[in-house]
Design brief:
Distance between the termini: 111 Å
Helix content: 25-40%
Number of strands: 26
Radius of gyration: 39 Å
Number of helices: 22
CATH superfamily of the largest domain: DD-peptidase/beta-lactamase superfamily
CATH architecture of the largest domain: 3-Layer(aba) Sandwich
Largest sheet: 5 strands, antiparallel
CATH class of the largest domain: Alpha Beta
Structural class: alpha+beta
Number of domains: 5
Strand order of the largest sheet: 7-6-14-13-12
Strand content: 15-25%
Shape: elongated
């Protein structure tokens, strides 16, 4: 009795151990193979693919198999798939009988579940022991997975010849379409291929392969799966010659997604394949023309404002390996040129520092180690802020950044998502607004997309209010057509677009980014290696591409004005400031509510003129009853000097009546163009090695004025009309004094730094 209990106990332990072993005999993950990376468009169609790390075209596992393939596969491999528990005793018995009769192994009697286990075990030797292992594991497989899951796993990992693994890879390589679009003939072919993939490889053993496929088609007909017409059509279909290359329509976007952590995955995107192809065609057509000027690369992106996802992503033109066509320019850091100017304009509006028409200085400007120039090398004296954005003037932009503060602007750009600003603000300084920093086409397009989305729907805690974005976009709608571009009209779009171009220093990068209520289109043109070319400007190269892409897009919505953030205010027409008591022309305009923080116009003065209208007077030297009081638009001398060249109707205030001391004239009669106050200067060394001379320049409100020059109490000479003086000062601190004929005096201190 004791022995029986011991035996039962041992037997129980053995059974428990066997059950535990059986339970854990199948690993949690059947396959840990590397997969290809698959990029699909918005319709689920394949755009691009990258082969798996082991050199196999193995697509990620599928969730299910199409009906045609399932019927073909089960009729060929396992008719009783839904009846057996992983092992079919009848099939095993029939296989044993056939093998004994043939004297060799001609049939294995394996079910699909057993074949899946064989794939999992990486082709172990075909021995009786291995077959027993497969049978055990197959039953365990059926307990863990549903029948549909087993089918999907098999279809995902079955070999289809060469380095093609899995149904999805096979359908694309052999038929250039997804599995759910297979014909009966194609489904039958793929059902028989895994049976002997090395022998039955399309393009090699076509006769045997065709016979095997057709036998399966006949079986499908006999079993009632297809009718006579299906059979007739299927039998007429030819076999594929050889595997076809997989699509590589958006390979740069695939590369970007892989770097983002999606390697070996199926990536479903919002890419519109038709739009993407059309954008690519536009890029190629324009780039082929630009190549004649030595410009070899171009990239474009179309973003959906609602989602921020790309509808088209052309990372580079097909310009050849020698021109870096593999470089994804959309993600490459490049000098931003003028793309940041509307953001700065919006930031100034947002903090209530300016109004849309506020006058900004546009005169020769010198900062420490930095002298910005407008593209046309001209000066307007002053220009309305929104016009400075529309015309992309550099000097007003630098002056606006000086007003806003480049450290604060640097922080704002980082907050808005400019990831390439990896240096502190002082590294860029005021050049930040003129392309002194780098940005990618992706980042810049996303920044403008966020501005559009905020204006459209609102983004919580966004650093710019809607009104400031609205006025920025309004300024960007004012298309500036440069005189030298006689063919510009052909580029004009028939829909409202807020857009900005940019050109980097040295003509290395041409940019154009446009925004509507629905889309953002960003374009970059240049050379991947950074080589500059004379005609490489944003307005000449990138803008035509951008506008042509917009013409591909459906009718788009424009933005609603955020009236809740605006207010109707009295604005001086000439200066763009809030109206002052001395304004001559006042407009009632919508401005950002924060604009009420700005000051009234500082350029309007009440002046008193004698009866002849030729002189300024005051009560100390002229009969008050004979004086005329007038409100005048008066610019400081330096600004007026350049302003009146572009605005001949500008009226200077007249000189003071001889004998009258008018303080306005004393304060504003002249100014210094160069140098700035407290400037640090180098004296140039000429080609012959001799010490050169500094050229100082002043301006006077009166055309025929005479100016006397003094340096450190030493008289230098006198100038008339054009007030330019060459000076050769020594190293150290200096004091320059200029005096006009009326005794008005201007003082500049500066230092000369030793060349040593």
């Amino acid at each position: 009795m004791s022995r029986l209990k011991t035996y039962r106990k041992h037997l129980t332990v053995l059974v428990v151990l066997l059950l535990i072993g059986y339970y854990f005999c199948l690993p949690e993950l059947l396959f840990d193979d590397p997969y290809a990376t698959i990029l699909n468009d918005r319709e689920g169609q394949l755009l691009s693919a990258r082969i798996a790390q082991d050199g196999q075209w193995r697509f990620p596992e599928i969730d299910g198999v199409p009906e045609k393939y399932k019927k073909a596969l089960l009729n060929f491999e396992d008719q009783y798939f839904y009846q057996h528990p992983g092992v079919n005793p009848l099939s095993i018995g029939r296989a044993i009988k056939q093998n004994v009769k043939a004297g060799r192994v001609v049939s294995g009697g394996s079910t699909l579940s057993m074949q899946l286990i064989r794939l999992h075990r990486k082709g172990k030797g075909r021995t009786v022991f291995e077959k027993l292992i497969e049978m055990v594991l197959a039953t365990r497989l059926e307990l863990k997975y549903s029948k549909s899951e087993v089918l999907a796993l098999y279809a995902s990992h079955a070999p289809f010849g060469g380095n093609t693994v899995g149904l999805s890879a096979a359908t694309w390589r052999y038929f250039s379409r997804p599995p759910d679009e297979l014909s009966w003939a194609e489904a039958a072919l793929l059902a028989v291929l895994p049976n002997q993939p090395s022998l039955l490889y399309p393009g090699r053993k076509n006769i045997q392969l065709l016979e095997k496929r057709n036998r399966l088609l006949l079986k499908l007909y006999q079993n009632g799966e297809i009718d006579g017409s299906d059979l007739e059509l299927a039998l007429e279909e030819p076999l594929p010659d050889k595997p076809s290359p997989l699509p590589q329509i958006a390979d740069h976007y695939l590369q970007f997604q892989r770097k983002g952590g999606k390697d070996g995955q199926v990536i479903n995107t919002n890419i519109d394949a038709k739009l993407h192809r059309n954008v690519r065609d536009i890029i190629e057509r324009h780039q082929s023309l630009y190549a004649l000027d030595g410009i070899h690369n171009a990239a474009a992106i179309v973003l959906d404002v609602e989602t921020g996802t790309p509808l088209a992503y052309v990372g580079n033109s097909q310009s050849g390996k020698e021109h870096g066509e593999s470089v994804d320019i959309v993600q490459a850091p490049r000098s931003t040129g003028s793309l940041l100017k509307p953001i700065l304009y919006s930031a100034l509006l947002n903090e209530g520092s300016i109004l849309p028409n506020t006058l900004i200085e546009d005169v020769p400007t010198f900062y420490k180690g930095f002298a910005p120039q407008n593209f046309n090398r001209q000066f307007d004296g002053v220009v309305h802020a929104k016009d400075a954005i529309a015309r992309s003037l550099n000097i007003p932009a630098v002056n606006m950044l000086q007003q806003f503060g480049y450290p604060k602007f640097h922080g704002l750009l980082r907050e808005l998502g400019l990831s390439t600003l990896n240096q502190p603000a002082d590294h860029y300084g005021l050049s930040l607004i003129l392309g002194g920093a780098e940005g990618s086409l992706w980042d810049m397009s996303q920044v403008y997309r966020d501005m559009a989305l905020h204006l459209k729907k609102g983004i919580p805690e966004y650093p710019l209010d809607k009104a400031s974005v609205w006025f920025a976009f309004e300024a960007m709608q004012e298309v500036y057509r440069p005189n030298e571009d006689a063919s510009w009209e052909m580029y004009s779009s028939n829909q409202p677009i807020a857009w900005k171009t940019g050109t980097s220093f040295g003509f290395r990068d041409g940019w154009a980014i446009g925004v509507t209520g629905d889309y953002v289109v960003g374009v970059w043109v240049g050379n991947a290696d950074g080589e500059g070319r004379p005609n490489l400007t944003g307005i000449q190269t990138a803008a035509p591409i951008m506008l042509e892409i917009f013409d591909l897009l459906p009718n788009q919505n424009w933005f609603r004005a955020p009236r809740q953030e605006m207010i109707l205010a009295a604005v001086d027409r000439q200066s763009g400031y809030l109206a002052s008591p001395y304004s001559n022309e006042v407009d009632s305009l919508l401005i950002p509510k924060k604009g009420l923080r700005t000051s009234p116009s500082p350029f309007h003065k009440r002046v008193h003129i004698d009866q002849s209208g030729q002189y300024l007077v005051d009560g100390a030297c002229y009969d008050m009853n004979a004086m005329r009081a007038e409100n005048r638009f008066v610019l400081p001398a330096k600004l007026a000097y350049y302003f009146k060249k572009k605005n001949p109707t500008y009226q200077e205030i007249p000189p003071s009546l001889p004998g009258c001391d008018h303080h306005l004239v004393v304060q504003n009669s002249m100014d210094m163009i160069y140098p700035n106050q407290n400037a640090s200067l180098y004296v140039p060394v000429e080609q012959d090695g001799e010490r050169g001379r500094l050229v100082f320049e002043a301006i006077h409100r009166e055309n025929n004025a005479k100016i006397h020059w003094h340096l450190d109490n030493e008289y230098l000479g006198v100038t008339y009309n054009d007030h330019v003086m060459e000076i050769n000062p020594s190293t150290g601190q200096h004091k320059l004094v200029i005096v006009d004929a009326n005794g008005n005096e201007l003082i500049r201190t500066f230092s000369v730094i030793s060349q040593d």
